[in-house]
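Thread: sanity check for a docking pose with pyridoxal-5'-phosphate

Original post by kr_44:
Hi all, I'm comparing my docking run against an independent structure prediction. Below are the sequence and the ligand SMILES. Could someone generate the full complex and paste the structure tokens? I mainly care about where the ligand ends up relative to the chain.
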Amino acid sequence: MVDLKSQYEKIQQEIDTAVLDVIRSTQYINGTEVKNFQQDLENYLGVKHVIPCANGTDALQVAMMGLGLKPGDEVITTSFTFVATVEVIALLGLTPVLVDVLPDTFNIDPESVRNAITPKTKAIVPVHLFGQCVDMQPLMELAEEHNLHIIEDNAQAIGADYIFPNGEKKKAGTMGIVGCTSFFPSKNLGCYGDGGAIFTNDDELAQKLRVIVNHGMEVRYYHDSIGVNSRLDSIQAAILRIKLKNLDKYCEARRAAADYYDKAFSGHPRIKTPVRSKFSTHVFHQYTLVIDKLDQFALQKFMGEKEIPAMIYYPVPMHMQKAYQDPRYTEGDFPVTEMLSKSVISLPMHTELDEEQLAYITQSVLEFLDKN
Ligand SMILES: *Cc1c(COP(=O)(O)O)cnc(C)c1O
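Reply from moderator J.T.:
Ran it for you. Here is the predicted complex with pyridoxal-5'-phosphate included:
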């Protein structure tokens, strides 16, 4: 799905030097590169505080711990996401409250969120799925009205801009009280291992988050709160500094590939190409088609035989997962999510796709649909 090798080869010299410099410095944990990357990312995002951590899942968990969410508190999120979003809510003893998504953007439906709010609701976790922002304005109004925290799961949309109705732009992940991201290798800003970060403009919360990621410790060996051990390695930070400089260019390359796909599939009676909303730029973490009357697994197998990877993100909605079974939910409760889980297919999407590959991929999809 991603070609990390070709991407690396283009920046190899710079990366190799940066990694060797860290090795020679012996500052493997919390070295200067971590601090430098933190500042670079703060500048890029236009956010006051970036707190690096070990991965995106930890980022979400630490954010919820920092906000002081307590067992029994309800947290509203989407039924159509990667499991980590719901996993950390459950892990902390909070109650995940799932709602459906919108069919055009695959993102959380603000109206469904409104209907799910109860006196126990403490937070909303919008997920900027596949590289496009959730419509934040209505969600932020709801949060304000009901005094709820917004925790943005921005693992898939780093670099995307949200455009407010008044024209003001903000980077995905910087609009809620806290935003979380992942630097997993295949994410839009990926390192060469695991990594993550938390963003906030709130000084007090930032301080709490910094303490939590470091064993609840402000003064060495004095622990004022229960924390975790969640750090970004210096080597990964050094790699991320180089990749961050290229991020906008990488987003452009993804958009160019998406343009090619859009054109090749336009007008096909069964294919719905990704919608690009007015309120968000799209950084195409995934290029996901919705195809009418599709046997997803047959298409995936057909593509596989042609040595083209194709993935189903996500085949099982959260409320249908064994681990998250809940008497409150049953099949049919989230019709859009359920429809999508049966009709989506994601095509290869990365920064190194060339026209020959794109032509081969699109022709293969069309060939399959001709016959099936
Ligand atoms: C990847 C991802 C995460 C988790 O990130 P990790 O770094 O793998 O822990 C969380 N939420 C979403 C939506 C993701 O895509």
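The pocket of pyridoxal-5'-phosphate is lined by residues 55-57, 81-82, 84-85, 127, 153, 155-156, 182, 184, 194, 196 (CB under 6 Å). Hope that helps with the comparison, let us know if your pose agrees.
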